[in-house]
Amino acid sequence: MSGDEIERQLRDALAARAEGAVDDLRPVPPARFLTAPAPARRSHQWLAPAAAAAAVLGLVGGVLAIAGSGGSSQGPKVVGGHSAAGSSTPGTSATVDAPSNTSAASDGAGKSVHVKLFNADNHTVGVAMPVIAIFSRKITNARPFVQATRVTVNEKPVQAAWYFEHSAAGLGAMEAHLRPKSYWPAHAKVHVSLDTRGKAAGHGLTYDDSLTLDFTTGAHTVATVDDSTNTLMVRTDGVSVATFPVSLGAPKTPTFGGTKVIMSKQQQVRLKGPGYDEVVPYALRLTYSGEYLVGVPSAYASIQKRLDVSNGCTDLVKADAERLYGMLGVGDPVEYVNGKGPSMSFTDGFGDWNVPWPLWLKGGLLPTS
Amino acid sequence: MAVLIAVEADPTTGPMGAVVPVPVAPAPVDVHALYTAHWRYLVRLAVLLVDDVASAEDVVQDAFVALHRKSGDLRDPEAALGYLRTTVLNLSRSVLRRRQVVRKHLRVAEPEATAPADHDVLLRDEHRAALAAVRRLPRHQREVLILRYWSGLSEREIAQTLGISPGSVKSAASRGLAALQKALGGEAS
Known about the structure:
heterodimer; A: five-stranded mixed beta sheet; B: 189 residues; mainly alpha; 2 domains
């Protein structure tokens, strides 16, 4: 492998790891330095490390009571503005109980599993947005979690089911996605409650929190990308609002088929790959592997000629990309039809809608019924 | 508590006494604006350094707490970002050091606690291999490669962040790359 190739591989790997760990969708959590006056905060926020250090010292001194010390080291963190129970904003609960050393050393009565939600409260999202729960450790029995879930749309109970998978983005030890059989109703209020605290997550595993989530759906906006005509059509609440010419993946790097969901929006993104490294405008992310709906000025001619030349991205001319960027938001579905490539995998983004409903009901990694 | 000082690096001093330039300007920096603008970037940087998201978020929060305490003295947002970067680097080192100590001793009592913070299980194979190889590099080379190939900093800025000379950045980078090439060279790409 050449030096250039090593550099490219390193660049890609670091970017994939960094962006996978903290996706663009993650809201910025409240700043800790704002929650208390400066001098008090100083002593406060060193409590957790102090307890961890104390635990180590205890061991060094021949005291093997690590379980007790480990448990107490989580105490100050919870006090420090991160509520472990109650309503969830993913940002705030993120640091409470992660797969770190301290959580592994919790009390002998069983290990605790902390659940957080990827979704933020009180946001408006597209009708294809899955609810994503992130588990601090691998659970082995999903049924109590499933039974503790209540979902309502406009205050009426609806059927929605969980599907368990590895966390492709490295958000936690495991992920579960919740969705109804077909897209959420448009312009609706969705409420999810997870009364999981104290319930079993498998042998010797207990949830340490309960959560709720409230979000609203926007219009029923669906983009359809037809590989046979190289067009992208946007329909909102049943009305066709725009059609754009696009260039899709070249024969060697075909664009994935199936239904993708917009994961994030970026005014600009740097796309790198074999033979290209460009900063391009108006990017709508579709997969962790790096497929975007994006304006690519250098692809102008191919788009006009309806040629497929990209590395998998759906390229638009800049003006079209700008319009599309204004039409679509996070959670809106993008359906790829008549393509030559394989379907997008579940874990390469929000691949939820590519799993047939009967299979979805089986629960993925863990049986749910 | 004397031992605590040994375990915790002071987040306010740069490595080897690196000095953050403080140009004279009218108003102190707006820490909150910096927080909103750079939180994601800094957490990502910390993730690459400490390898788990929760610790990375803690590191970044602590870095902003440190900046907040100093914000009266800092007037240039660019310098403040440099200060944050250096603090994230230092705090990440502390996390790794602490983790190493904890692991060493926990191995006796609780074998499960030694499992690596392996969040990249589902990254593509070539990415995983590259990350694993980076993780095995000596600390200096690892930091230089992460700053050079991810953060978008120039050699001079990397030198400033790490408090070393540009020449050391160059040599650490080329040694690191050579080691990676050796580690990954066997694989087709």
